[in-house]
RNA sequence: AGAGAGGUGUCCGAGUGGUUGAAGGAGCACGCCUGGAAAGCGUGUAUACCCGUGAGGGUAUCGAGGGUUCGAAUCCCUUCCUCUCUGCCA
C-alpha cells in the first residue's frame, strides 16, 4: 500500500498518477487519506497523553506500596478509575480510525511511474520492440489444441476426468517438454545470478496480504478453508514473502531469487473464445524471478530482468514483442510493467508469456521489508518480479510455430534437456 | 493425532505482579590504552507511531490476539510455532 507520507509530500503527482490508471475520484480519495491520518494523529496524541498520566499514577502507587503508605496508595487508586475508562474509549476511537485508514489505503493502487502512459485498456499499451521472425506456415497449419491431439502429448479430457476443465494432463513427450522447459529456465536463472528456491505452494493469509492478493482478490485463489491456506496464483507470493518482516543490510542488495512452482488460478468468469487450449488454465507451471532492490537501483533491475526474459525467448527462437503497459492495464500493485508476448503462428496472435514489474515500495510497505542505510536509517526496499517464464503459452507457441509435415521441431537449446529433437 | 516442556532484544540467557525496554554475557560500533594487535577499560548498540527546529520527550511492543489488575514479560483464556516422548506416515 501507499505511504501516507508520500501522498502528503507528493500530492499532485499522486493524483495525476492515479488518474493515469483511471482510478475514480483520485483527488477526493487521497484527501480523505490525509484527513483520516490527521484524525489518527490527534487521536493518538489524546490517547498517549492520558495513558502517560495513568502510567505515572501507577508508578506512584507502586512506590507508595513499597514504602508502606497504604492509605495514600488507596487514594491514588480511586483516581485512576475514571482515567481508565477514558483511555479505553480513546483507544477504541483510535483503533477505529486506524482501521478505516488501512482499508482506504488497501483500496488505492500503486502510483504509476512517470513514464507510464495513460490509457484505458490493452489497446493503449506501447509496443517497445519486436524481435524474431514470424514463421510462414502452410494453409494446413493447426492450432496447438489440434496438435496436442494429433501427437497425443497433452490431454484435456483426462484432466476433466481427474479434476475439471483447465487442468490438463501432459503425457509422453508433452510431459518431457514441460520438464525440459522448467530445467532450462532454472538453469538459465542460476547462470544469471539468481539463487534457486523451492517455496511452499500453499500460503497463509499474512502472505496473501503481503503481496497484495488479499484483501479483495481472494476470489482469484483456491482456498484450503479447513486450514485457511491459499494455493498460490504465482510464486511471487511465497518468494517475495520470504522477506516479510525483514531488515536487510545495504550490502545484501541485490537479492535475486528464482523458483519453479505450479500456479493455481480460479479465473472466475474469464472464459471465452480466446482462451482455448493452453491459453488459459487453472493450473500451470511457471518459473518466477524475484528481486529485492535498493530503491536507487530498482529501475536498473527492472531493465535487467526485461533483458533477461528476452534472452530466454531468443534462445527458444520465438518471435516476441515487449509492451510497456498503460495505466489502465497495469496490475494493482505495480508502478511499471513490461509484458512480453510471443507470436503464436497458427492462432495468429500474440500471447502474453511474461510480465515484469517494479512495485517500488508498495509491496515492501505491506511486507515491512526494509534495509538499514549507511546513516543507520531504516527505509523500505523495492520489490520486483517477473515470469521467466510461464510454460503453457510458450508450449503453445513452440508447437504451433515449429510444426512441419514431418513433426514438430524442438528449439535447439532444449534438445539436450529433452533427449529428442522432434515430436 | 495424544502427553509433556517451552517461545524474552543480533545471539545466549535472567526474570512468576510494581520506576523492567527488560539483569548478566557474547557479538557489533566508536573511543582510550598499545610500536601494532590481543587483552583490558569506557561509551553506545531494537522497531513503529506521536510531540519537538533541535536536544529530547511520550505511547506501544518479551510469538500473536483477548482478559484480570491502579500496574502484566510475569496471572487467566484463545491461537500459532518449536522441542521431547508415543502414534501414524512419504
Automatic annotation (TrEMBL):
UniProt keyword terms in alphabetical order: Aminoacyl-tRNA synthetase, ATP-binding, Coiled coil, Cytoplasm, Ligase, Nucleotide-binding, Protein biosynthesis
Record carries keyword Acetylation: no
Annotated ranges, domain Aminoacyl-transfer RNA synthetases class-II family profile: 176-416
GO molecular function, one term: serine-tRNA ligase activity
Protein location: Cytoplasm
Class of enzymatic activity (EC top level): ligase
Coiled-coil segments: 26-107
The EC number(s) this enzyme carries: 6.1.1.11
Main subcellular location of this protein, as a coarse class: cytoplasm
Sequence similarity: Belongs to the class-II aminoacyl-tRNA synthetase family. Type-1 seryl-tRNA synthetase subfamily.
PANTHER family attached to this UniProt entry: SERINE--TRNA LIGASE, SERYL-TRNA SYNTHETASE
Protein name: Serine--tRNA ligase
Organism in which the protein naturally occurs: Belliella filtrata
Gene: serS
Amino acid at each position: 500500500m501507499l505511504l501516507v507520507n508520500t501522498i502528503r509530500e507528493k500530492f499532485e503527482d499522486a493524483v495525476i498518477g492515479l488518474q493515469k490508471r483511471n482510478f475514480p475520484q483520485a483527488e477526493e480519495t487521497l484527501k480523505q487519506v490525509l484527513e483520516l491520518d490527521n484524525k489518527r494523529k490527534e487521536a493518538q496524541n489524546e490517547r498517549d497523553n492520558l495513558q502517560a498520566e495513568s502510567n505515572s499514577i501507577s508508578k506512584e502507587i507502586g512506590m507508595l506500596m513499597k514504602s508502606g503508605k497504604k492509605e495514600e496508595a488507596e487514594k491514588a487508586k480511586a483516581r485512576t478509575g475514571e482515567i481508565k475508562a477514558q483511555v479505553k474509549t480513546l483507544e477504541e476511537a483510535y483503533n477505529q480510525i486506524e482501521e478505516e485508514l488501512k482499508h482506504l489505503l488497501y483500496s488505492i493502487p500503486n502510483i504509476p511511474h512517470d513514464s507510464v502512459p495513460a490509457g484505458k485498456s490493452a489497446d493503449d499499451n506501447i509496443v517497445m520492440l519486436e524481435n524474431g521472425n514470424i514463421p510462414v506456415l502452410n494453409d494446413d497449419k493447426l492450432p496447438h489444441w489440434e496438435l496436442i491431439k494429433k501427437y497425443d502429448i497433452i490431454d484435456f479430457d483426462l484432466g476433466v476426468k481427474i479434476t475439471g476443465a483447465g487442468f490438463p494432463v501432459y503425457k509422453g513427450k508433452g510431459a518431457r517438454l514441460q520438464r525440459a522447459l522448467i530445467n532450462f529456465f532454472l538453469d538459465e536463472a542460476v547462470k544469471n545470478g539468481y539463487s534457486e528456491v523451492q517455496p511452499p505452494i500453499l500460503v497463509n493469509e499474512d502472505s496473501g496480504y503481503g503481496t497484495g492478493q488479499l484483501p479483495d482478490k481472494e476470489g482469484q485463489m483456491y482456498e484450503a478453508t479447513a486450514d485457511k491456506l491459499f494455493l498460490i496464483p504465482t510464486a511471487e507470493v511465497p518468494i517475495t514473502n520470504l522477506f516479510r518482516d525483514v531488515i536487510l543490510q545495504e550490502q545484501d542488495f541485490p537479492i535475486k531469487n528464482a523458483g519453479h512452482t505450479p500456479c493455481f488460478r480460479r479465473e472466475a468468469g474469464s472464459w471465452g473464445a480466446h482462451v482455448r487450449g493452453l491459453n488459459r488454465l487453472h493450473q500451470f507451471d511457471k518459473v518466477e524471478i524475484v528481486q529485492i532492490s535498493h530503491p536507487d537501483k530498482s529501475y536498473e533491475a527492472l531493465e535487467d530482468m526485461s533483458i533477461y526474459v528476452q534472452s530466454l525467448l531468443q534462445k527458444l527462437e520465438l518471435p516476441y514483442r515487449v509492451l510497456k503497459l498503460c495505466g489502465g492495464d497495469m496490475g494493482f500493485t505495480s508502478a511499471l510493467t513490461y509484458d512480453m508476448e510471443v507470436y503464436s503462428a497458427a492462432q495468429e496472435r500474440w500471447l502474453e508469456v511474461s510480465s515484469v514489474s517494479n512495485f517500488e515500495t508498495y509491496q515492501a510497505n505491506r511486507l515491512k521489508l526494509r534495509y538499514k542505510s549507511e546513516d543507520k536509517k531504516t527505509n523500505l526496499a523495492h520489490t520486483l518480479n517477473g515470469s521467466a517464464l510461464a510454460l503453457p503459452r510458450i508450449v503453445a507457441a513452440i508447437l504451433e510455430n515449429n510444426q512441419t509435415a514431418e513433426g514438430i521441431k524442438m528449439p535447439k537449446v532444449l534438445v539436450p534437456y529433452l533427449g529428442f529433437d522432434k515430436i
